[in-house]
Amino acid sequence: MIETREAISEKTVLIGIITQHQDEKQSEEYLDELEFLTLTAGGVAVKRFVQKLDKPHPKTFIGTGKLEDVKAYIESNEIGTAIFDDELSPAQLRNIERFLDCKILDRTNLILDIFASRAQTSSAKAQVELAQYQYLLPRLTRMWTHLDKQKGGIGMRGPGETEIETDRRIIRDKISLLKKKLTTIDKQMSVQRKNRGKMVRVALVGYTNVGKSTLMNVVSKSEVFAENKLFATLDTTVRKVVIKNIPFLMTDTVGFIRKLPTQLVESFKSTLDEVREADLLLHVVDISHPNFEDHIASVNKILDEIDSKDKPTVMVFNKIDAYTHETIDEDDLITEKTKEHSTLEDWKRTWMNDLETESIFISALNKDNLENFKEKAYEEVKKIHIQRFPYNDFLYQEY
Ligand SMILES: Nc1nc2c(ncn2[C@@H]2O[C@H](COP(=O)(O)OP(=O)(O)OP(=O)(O)O)[C@@H](O)[C@H]2O)c(=O)[nH]1
Ligand SMILES: [Mg+2]
């Protein structure tokens, strides 16, 4: 595993841009997420730099004037790491490294780093390692000294060209070895999944930290690791669940995030196959999060990328206990009602009126509305079960 962790346990600055499609509030929320990622990786964000740009500057991500501000701040505040809220191209990374005298990380790097620290099984480890090397290959610069020494980071002078070439060769070899290893793992996992028979398979999907594992635990009485950090779950867990008289398999999977690095989506093939092969998706949403609609869109985008967008899906709005909304005074005639003023009842009405989508509102933590959730899951599983086992209809008689 490529270790970059100890390098982040220091003061960091966050750097993002606001495009013409975003408002400032949205950009704040994106940086809140980057700060949460930084925290999860063990760092502390002490300052944010934001610049209005239509698209990232091709050479330096933000303009050089702004970069000067960052440089000055870094120098006078003992900042160890600058974190950019997007994937930097190899050229951008090189240019910024020349400019700023600190460790440079981008969003992809940060996510890969968290995944690396979370990986438990050999399959998860191999998947992350492959993604890390694929990210690293075009970016071998002075940041990475010769691999034998394995020292990343601050102030290291670069290896010579021949050393970089040697490193590239080593990395290419590692990539092809890992790919072979993963092909073997994929085969084993696919056999395992086949051995589970024809039982209906339900997968919990959703943005990271929305409560998938918590819900899995309350429904299946298992003890899957859940915590208030991003990407608590990397390895899938499968449990047999019985609701009324129908048994089915429930899978807890890795959380998704906005701009999930493509290397990760590709290398997590065997993990995502659980989703791909599921009969029913429970799309869990944290309705208490100000950006939850954005989260839904990100998850749908990834589902689309793994050809799972058209599966039967129930939207499970979780954390209703934590939902808050803004209010408008009765005598305030100026403020216009926006989404931030929607009550939980408003949201329920909106989603219940959407006839194409099944939805349910719960709190997995407080077990609010859990019986209705189970009923809903039962109904949906039953539809699939009936198709699969047409002669088993005695199962559905009410007792
Ligand atoms: N207030 C509130 N918090 C909840 C609820 N459900 C889960 N949480 C909390 O949300 C945090 C994340 O929960 P997890 O179950 O780990 O979320 P996850 O979706 O599995 O997250 P990843 O595995 O990181 O993708 C934990 O601190 C939970 O206690 C809920 O209904 N209400
Ligand atoms: Mg989880």
UniProtKB/TrEMBL annotation:
<dbReference type="Pfam" id="PF01926">
    <property type="entry name" value="MMR_HSR1"/>
</dbReference>
<dbReference type="InterPro" id="IPR027417">
    <property type="entry name" value="P-loop_NTPase"/>
</dbReference>
<dbReference type="InterPro" id="IPR032305">
    <property type="entry name" value="GTP-bd_M"/>
</dbReference>
<dbReference type="InterPro" id="IPR005225">
    <property type="entry name" value="Small_GTP-bd"/>
</dbReference>
<keyword id="KW-0547">Nucleotide-binding</keyword>
<dbReference type="InterPro" id="IPR030394">
    <property type="entry name" value="G_HFLX_dom"/>
</dbReference>
<comment type="similarity">
    <text>Belongs to the TRAFAC class OBG-HflX-like GTPase superfamily. HflX GTPase family.</text>
</comment>
<feature type="binding site">
    <location>
        <position position="233"/>
    </location>
    <ligand>
        <name>Mg(2+)</name>
    </ligand>
</feature>
<feature type="binding site">
    <location>
        <begin position="206"/>
        <end position="213"/>
    </location>
    <ligand>
        <name>GTP</name>
    </ligand>
</feature>
<dbReference type="GO" id="GO:0005525">
    <property type="term" value="F:GTP binding"/>
</dbReference>
<comment type="subunit">
    <text>Monomer. Associates with the 50S ribosomal subunit.</text>
</comment>
<protein>
    <recommendedName>
        <fullName>GTPase HflX</fullName>
    </recommendedName>
</protein>
<keyword id="KW-0460">Magnesium</keyword>
<dbReference type="GO" id="GO:0043022">
    <property type="term" value="F:ribosome binding"/>
</dbReference>
<dbReference type="InterPro" id="IPR042108">
    <property type="entry name" value="GTPase_HflX_N_sf"/>
</dbReference>
<feature type="domain" description="Hflx-type G">
    <location>
        <begin position="200"/>
        <end position="385"/>
    </location>
</feature>
<feature type="binding site">
    <location>
        <begin position="231"/>
        <end position="235"/>
    </location>
    <ligand>
        <name>GTP</name>
    </ligand>
</feature>
<keyword id="KW-0479">Metal-binding</keyword>
<feature type="binding site">
    <location>
        <position position="213"/>
    </location>
    <ligand>
        <name>Mg(2+)</name>
    </ligand>
</feature>
<dbReference type="InterPro" id="IPR006073">
    <property type="entry name" value="GTP-bd"/>
</dbReference>
<keyword id="KW-0963">Cytoplasm</keyword>
<feature type="binding site">
    <location>
        <begin position="252"/>
        <end position="255"/>
    </location>
    <ligand>
        <name>GTP</name>
    </ligand>
</feature>
<dbReference type="GO" id="GO:0046872">
    <property type="term" value="F:metal ion binding"/>
</dbReference>
<comment type="function">
    <text>GTPase that associates with the 50S ribosomal subunit and may have a role during protein synthesis or ribosome biogenesis.</text>
</comment>
<dbReference type="InterPro" id="IPR016496">
    <property type="entry name" value="GTPase_HflX"/>
</dbReference>
<dbReference type="GO" id="GO:0003924">
    <property type="term" value="F:GTPase activity"/>
</dbReference>
<dbReference type="GO" id="GO:0005737">
    <property type="term" value="C:cytoplasm"/>
</dbReference>
<feature type="binding site">
    <location>
        <begin position="318"/>
        <end position="321"/>
    </location>
    <ligand>
        <name>GTP</name>
    </ligand>
</feature>
<keyword id="KW-0342">GTP-binding</keyword>
<dbReference type="Pfam" id="PF13167">
    <property type="entry name" value="GTP-bdg_N"/>
</dbReference>
<dbReference type="Pfam" id="PF16360">
    <property type="entry name" value="GTP-bdg_M"/>
</dbReference>
<feature type="binding site">
    <location>
        <begin position="363"/>
        <end position="365"/>
    </location>
    <ligand>
        <name>GTP</name>
    </ligand>
</feature>
<dbReference type="InterPro" id="IPR025121">
    <property type="entry name" value="GTPase_HflX_N"/>
</dbReference>
